Amino acid sequence: MPLNTMPNIVRKHSLLILCSIWSCLFSNSIFAIERWQHDAYIENSFIKIALEREYKETANPKIVRWEQPVKIFFSSDAGDTAFQKELLSVHVQHLSHITGLPIDFTLDPEEANLFAIFTYYNQMEDTVRQYIGDPNRIRKALNEAVCLGNFSVNKQREITKGVIIIPVDYARQKARFLDCIVEEITQLLGLPNDSNDVYPSIFNDVSTDAYLTPLDYLLLRTLYSPRLKTGLNVTQTKAILPSIMKDLHQTQEIENSIDLVQEYSLRRYLGE
User: Fold this and answer.
1) How far apart (Å, rounded) are the C-alpha atoms in residues 73 and 80?
2) CA torsion sign, 134 to 138 to 141 to 144?
3) Is residue 124 a contact partner of residue 30, using CB atoms and an 8 Å limit?
4) pTM summary value
5) Where are the alpha helices (DSSP H) in 100-195?
6) Using CA atoms, how far apart are residues 149 and 141, in angstroms rounded to an integer?
7) Is 146 helix (H, G, I), strand (E, B) or coil?
8) Which tens digits make up the pLDDT trace of 59-98?
9) Are 76 and 165 in contact (CB under 8 A)?
10) pLDDT tens digit string along 198-239?
11) Which of 58, 125, 164, 270 would bridge with 184, disulfide CB 3.0–4.6 Å?
């Protein structure tokens, strides 16, 4: 073989090696992305959780969320009141950190727009009657759910009032006490549905997740994106979601959501 042809062969061989290495790296980067980190999966999950309803069918569902600061009135007649409020406080501050929505407590029920009531199972009907209304209006939820969440909206679809009721004894019996605190207050921010198609998530009834997952973090960030508006329907929301996904990629929040969801989280607070 002529000596002057060897450099070309070496260059071609080196190029093939580099291409092979790049191909491996690129393939590994693709497989490193979890299914729930794909834009389409996040968008579809958001539609299921934000625009569908678990116990109430709606012909034209719309985005609902808070447009005013949340003031929580906490009440408990069931056991360790201080510990219950401590857990609730840590979680709502976590939600505030994620969404940017101001959330705080008030000792004045007249000032409150969200009521967090911890009680006993045998007092559920009376508690519902006091804070929500006729128990028969939510009979299916009352019969099936371990704990309850309920909210009201105005004509603009802004959430104006919310109530969560946790029967402490029954929730502990079902090993759902922490789940109730995390899920109910999170759903009352405007993600009211559960779906077994959305995973990993606290909004999945067959999931073992008791704390917010990275996907839940992304759903909350999407809901309170300034690009999204309260009152948008499904078609309008779908048109905006790709822009929100682009924003979340630019800030690396989709890629780093596993770490970001743990900042100020109840899970980290409890050392789990």
Assistant:
1) 17
2) positive
3) no
4) 0.86
5) 124-131, 139-144, 168-173, 177-187
6) 9
7) coil
8) 789 999 999 999 999 999 998 999 999 999 999 999 999 9
9) no
10) 999 999 988 778 999 999 999 999 999 999 999 999 999 999
11) 164
